[in-house]
Design a protein that fits this description.
The protein has helices at residues 2-24, 29-36, 62-75, 91-96, 111-114, 155-163, 175-183, 194-203, 229-244, 247-255, 257-260, 265-268; strands at residues 39-43, 46-47, 51-53, 59-60, 81-85, 102-103, 117-119, 124-133, 147-151, 168-172, 189-193, 207-220, 223-225. It is α/β, with parallel strands linked by helices. It has 2 domains: 29-123 and 221-260, 3-Layer(aba) Sandwich (D-Maltodextrin-Binding Protein, domain 2), CATH 3.40.190; 127-218, 3-Layer(aba) Sandwich (D-Maltodextrin-Binding Protein, domain 2). A hairpin with a 3-residue loop joins strand 2 and strand 3. The longest helix has 23 residues, at 2-24. It is globular.
């Protein structure tokens, strides 16, 4: 009986050693993507001009253009990208669970997020902004006794929860829900990335960005899982290339210039 048990566990151990060795040998995330011949990238569906669904029902926006170029440079064809639609609060979980290979959903780099994911080379600069009816909220003081709308899991949510716990926050999962709540006067103002609120206020002229820059200026970057070292290295080089070969500027002109202006390119893009 003892010999049978020892033999059984010996076989299991031998199988694991052989199997694990074969699985790990050269089978990193980058090589697996090349074998699958498709890359899954998480983007927004409701955050124009960065990630949204256009009138033809297709993914569109600045982040989407970058994602397609990543697929082209990695797999030889821009159509070899599968888009996974994410919410702000689900971006980290989608990465950790393997639902996506890369997050390109206007992801602000923070110390808290760096603890659980790896950020690649940044491609944009951003700070917080606050939009309100007529821009009547022009300072933090103006928010006292008011309701501030934020999206769950965003830098706006983290910033106000940490630095101004006295301000009442009304939290939503989706951007569309949050901005609709502002239009319906369920909140007095909305805090989000200043690039987004500038764009939204331009389409809704009864609203204005009363606080244009709040907190420290951050950067936006793609993110991958902590263990995907080879993919991170490739992505770092890719973003650097797109920053220097003119692709980022060209994409800005196609998607962002109409909103922010051609003269704002140096203050928006993170190009060294």
């Amino acid at each position: 009986m003892k010999k049978t048990i020892i033999l059984f566990f010996g076989l299991i151990l031998g199988f694991c050693l052989v199997g694990c060795g074969n699985q790990s040998k050269g089978d990193n995330a980058l090589e697996m993507l090349r074998k699958k011949d498709v890359i899954t990238i998480g983007v927004f569906s409701d955050k124009p001009p960065f990630g949204f669904i256009n009138k033809e029902g297709q993914n569109d926006g600045f982040d989407v253009l970058i994602s397609k170029q990543i697929a082209k440079d990695l797999l030889g064809d821009s159509s070899k990208v599968k888009f996974e639609l994410v919410e702000a609060a689900s971006r980290v979980e989608f990465l950790k669970s393997g639902k996506v290979d890369i997050i390109m959903a206007n992801f602000t780099k923070t110390k808290e997020r760096e603890e659980v994911v790896n950020f690649a080379t940044p491609y944009m600069k951003v700070a917080l902004g606050v939009v309100s009816l007529g821009g009547n909220i022009a300072s933090i003081e103006d928010l006292k006794g008011k309701k501030l709308i934020v999206n769950k899991g965003t830098t706006a949510d983290f910033y106000f929860s940490k630095n101004h716990p006295e301000i009442e926050l009304l939290k939503f999962d989706q951007n569309t829900e949050a901005f609709l709540a502002l239009k319906d006067a369920r909140g007095d103002a909305l805090a989000h990335d200043n690039l987004l609120v500038f764009a939204w206020a331009k389409e809704n002229p009864e609203f204005a960005v009363g606080i244009e820059k709040l907190g420290e200026e951050d950067v936006i970057a793609p993110a991958v899982k902590k263990e995907d070292k080879e993919l991170l290295e490739w992505l770092n080089k890719e973003i650097e290339t797109l920053n220097t070969n003119g692709f980022m500027k060209e994409s800005y002109e196609k998607t962002l210039a109409l909103i922010y202006g051609a003269d704002k390119i140096d203050s928006v893009l993170f190009v060294k």
